[in-house]
Design brief:
globular; mainly beta; 4 helices; 30-stranded mixed sheet; 6-stranded mixed sheet
Length: about 800
């Protein structure tokens, strides 16, 4: 009922705002395009519009990815502009006169580099692979040579502070609870399902990835470790434009991907469409030794070699349109779809020994599955600027549907120590799951005085999921329903949220305080057992940010906030998923949300050196756990609440253009996590200091030819109760621009020494486990892309509105 009211109010706002503000706007705009001496666009330069009479600042803008800038609704009068870009001399354009209902087009403005050449090397203002901002870290995948023709999961593994474990689960600086979004919208997946989706997604669709460690109150309150937002490529230019890209990679198995983008933009509308296809095959070779003890005496040992291949075939269409209703109002619609099919094939061999290392027996476990995920989603966004002071309203309406179908066939054959056949079990699984998400949100901003800004908004989301999983034991041709493995789980959740942020600038200080309130109403039911639960709670989430500029080169930033992580829908589903004959995973319907208090202090020098120190404390920490039964010789992968977790971090980053031909971004991230709690009557109090070293380097050899070298090193660290061993990754690439810079040919090799796979040691209760999970990470890639069409730069396509609830579905995207 509440969701219906919110949607009705949203449509009222749309109608009211459009009818009251659709008339009476002028076209007094100032436009221009910034280029370098090679006619390449200059992005992210600062363009200041100043009054010709007293040089007072009228408005500031940044040039976009194509060097374009626009000042809207400028009053009649005389002006000049001041342009400043990194690596370029300051440029002025004077004697600009704005008349009534006139568009002033300054055309192309050429910026001169501070250092014009180094031997035969031309200096251009390229974006760094990694950019540091006060509120986030931006990784420009679009400009990366070594990320070309990778999957997104492979891109994730190379990001600073990001780790992907043996099951494809992502952590940030050793912390779980990371929110993964695509264009501001959650992926709809968690755990292994999220990893599987990202394995099938090509990097050719990605423009950049944003890592936001401490979001403001405007964001959903979820994510104690922060948000990783994947930003896809979008239409940016007027007229007809497009691009095509195709790539091939070879590791142990082949990886192929291709994509196409088309767009047409006029003054009043923007039409765009894209399609990508990926066919990739990978593997995971899990080798483990599991030791079971009784009163410190070794009882038995399991030696396992589990080899699984997963060929992915992914289709990803995207279709959208932006309509300009007036100079201040626009409506956008977007439809996306993902079809992801893969047929994993797993073969597991386990030898069983007693405490004296005598072989007792063995088993062969096979998995033959057919999985299909289909997701489609729709978004409508309305945006209205009330005036030129920054007063703006944005409204998003979202709907998404997820479907997951899986046919599973498991066979377990048991032999004795001589290899003599003892028994054979066959069971089949049939999984049908779907989920609906509806959401509506509104965001409003306005300036208060000269140096203050108010942000406020609200959101409601309604989620309903239905997961029906049936298992059957097969004897000859007879199929018997297995109630111990089958499950039918129904879940619904309503979240209502409201927030307010206030920003204020002083002489050397700038600050922001915010408060977000979220109400959660949730109901769950296990149909087969009759177990039900209901939750209804309201939480407040304050946040605060303070910047202090010591002088032109030195500044400090302090941030603090309170966040929540609700359990993922799949994490609460108690269904058992078979991994091998003695290992399975299952959800925990008793999981509670975890609450985290975050704080971080950052010092920056000359926008090149960043030093930050952080501390966070989490209560009811949601932790992946291996619970091992030494008596039954069974291991369960599940999720539990630990009492608390303390997390300390100290990070140093250096980002600079060292010479005219060499950019570097290097850093060390050190952290120390301490976990405390009791699971299955075992007390846990464990901590492990760790650090990550990263360096990303771009080399400009000559016009149109460049190289890139990246190195990541992750020291051993604690992931719940698992001690992860060190791992490192060296990747190299070279790129050449062809056909008058409209085409690009790229060759790269990732994980040159094949050391970027996880391994670790898990000790819990009376069981020790040592494991290594090798993957297809060493890959040679070649990629060709071609851009066509002409036109000036246009406003980038906006993000959409559905947020954190879709991340938790565990169904599809």
């Amino acid at each position: 009922m509440k969701a219906k009211v919110v949607i009705a109010l949203t449509f009222f706002l749309l109608t009211f705002t459009f009818t009251t503000h659709a008339k009476g706007f002028n076209d007094q705009n100032i436009t221009g395009i910034l280029i370098d001496e090679n006619s390449a666009p200059v992005p992210f330069a600062t363009v200041a519009l100043r009054n010709a009479n007293d040089s007072s600042l009228v408005k500031g803008e940044l040039s976009d990815d194509n060097g374009a800038f626009t000042f809207l609704q400028v009053n009649e009068g005389h002006y000049f502009i001041e342009i400043q870009g990194i690596g370029f001399d300051k440029e002025l354009r004077t004697a600009i006169t704005v008349s009534a209902n006139q568009v002033t087009d300054l055309g192309k403005i050429t910026l001169k580099p501070k250092s014009t050449s180094l031997q035969t090397v031309n200096v251009v203002a390229d974006k760094l692979f990694i950019e540091r901002h006060l509120d986030k870290t931006v990784i420009n995948i679009e400009n990366s040579i070594i990320q070309t023709n990778s999957s997104v999961i492979e891109v994730m593994e190379k990001l600073p502070g990001v780790q992907v474990n043996q099951d494809g689960i992502i952590s940030l600086k050793g912390r779980q609870g990371v929110i993964i979004t695509i264009d501001g919208k959650p992926t709809g997946l968690s755990g292994q399902d999220l990893g599987n989706l990202l394995k099938g997604m090509p990097s050719s669709n990605i423009q950049k990835i944003e890592i936001i460690t401490n979001p403001s109150s405007r964001y959903d309150a979820a994510g104690n470790a922060g948000i990783i937002n994947i930003v896809t490529k979008k239409n940016k230019r007027t007229g007809f434009n497009g691009s095509i890209s195709t790539g091939y990679g070879q590791g142990r198995y082949s990886k192929f991907s291709t994509s196409a983008n088309l767009s047409y933009k006029s003054k009043w509308y923007n039409l765009f469409m894209s399609y990508s296809y990926a066919k990739r095959k990978g593997f995971n070779n899990l080798m483990l030794t599991r030791k079971f003890y009784s009163n410190d005496t070794l009882g038995s040992v399991f030696e396992t070699n589990n080899y699984i291949t997963f060929p992915f075939e992914t289709h990803n269409p995207r279709l959208g349109a932006d309509f300009t209703l007036s100079p201040k109002s626009s409506v956008s619609v977007l439809a996306t779809g993902v079809s992801n099919k893969f047929n994993p094939k797993g073969d597991n061999h386990t030898d069983i020994y007693n405490g004296e290392n005598a072989k007792m027996g063995a088993y062969e476990f096979t998995n033959r599955s057919k999985d299909s995920w289909i997701n489609y989603s729709f978004n409508t966004q309305f945006r209205h600027q009330f005036d030129t002071t920054g007063k703006e309203l944005t409204v998003d309406l979202d709907y998404a549907n997820y479907m997951n179908n899986a046919e599973q066939l498991f066979t377990n054959t048991v032999t004795d120590h001589t290899g003599t056949f003892l028994s054979k079990d066959v069971f089949k699984g049939d999984q049908q799951a779907h989920l609906d998400i509806k959401s509506a949100k509104a965001d409003y901003t306005q300036t208060i005085g000269e140096k203050a800004r108010l942000e406020a908004g609200g959101k409601s989301s309604l989620v309903r999921g239905d997961s029906d999983i049936k298992f059957y034991n097969q004897t000859n041709e007879d199929m018997k329903f297995d109630t111990s493995r089958s499950n039918h789980f129904i879940y619904s959740e309503l979240i209502n949220a409201a927030y307010i942020n206030v920003n204020k600038e002083f002489k050397k200080f700038s600050g922001q305080i915010g408060l977000r309130a979220e109400q959660t109403v949730a109901d769950g039911e296990q149909v087969l057992t009759g177990y039900t639960f209901s939750r209804n709670y309201l939480q407040l989430f304050p946040s605060a940010f303070v910047d202090y500029k010591l002088n032109e080169k030195n500044s400090l930033n302090l941030s603090a906030g309170r966040r929540i992580d609700r359990p993922g829908y799949q994490q609460m589903d108690p269904f058992r998923r078979m991994i091998d004959a003695t290992t399975y995973s299952e959800g925990n319907p008793y999981l509670l949300p975890q609450i985290t208090y975050n704080s971080e202090l950052t010092y920056s020098y000359n926008n090149a050196v960043f030093l930050s120190a952080g501390y966070s404390k989490t209560y009811d920490n949601i932790t992946d756990m291996l619970i091992q039964d030494a008596v039954k010789k069974v291991t369960v992968q599940t999720v539990v609440n630990l009492d608390e977790a303390d997390f300390y971090s100290l990070n140093l980053t250096y980002s600079k253009r060292l010479t005219g031909w060499w950019n570097t971004n290097s850093g060390i991230q050190s952290y120390y996590g301490i976990y405390k709690g009791t699971v299955n009557d075992y007390s846990i109090h464990a901590g492990q200091p760790s650090f990550t070293l990263t360096t990303s380097n771009n080399f400009f050899i000559r016009d149109g030819l460049s190289m890139e070298a990246n190195f990541n090193y992750n020291h051993k660290n604690l992931y719940g109760v698992t001690l992860m061993n060190r791992m490192y990754n060296l990747s190299l690439g070279i790129q050449k621009q062809l056909l008058k810079k409209q085409a690009t040919l790229t060759l790269n090799v990732s994980d040159l020494f094949w050391k970027a796979y996880p391994s670790g040691h898990t000790q819990f209760g009376n069981v020790d486990e040592f494991w290594t999970a090798k993957r297809d990470t060493r890959v040679v890639n070649i990629n060709f892309s071609y851009r066509f069409g002409k036109g000036q730069a246009a406003k980038m396509r906006r993000n959409t509105g559905a947020d954190e609830e879709k991340r938790r579905t565990g169904v599809g995207s």
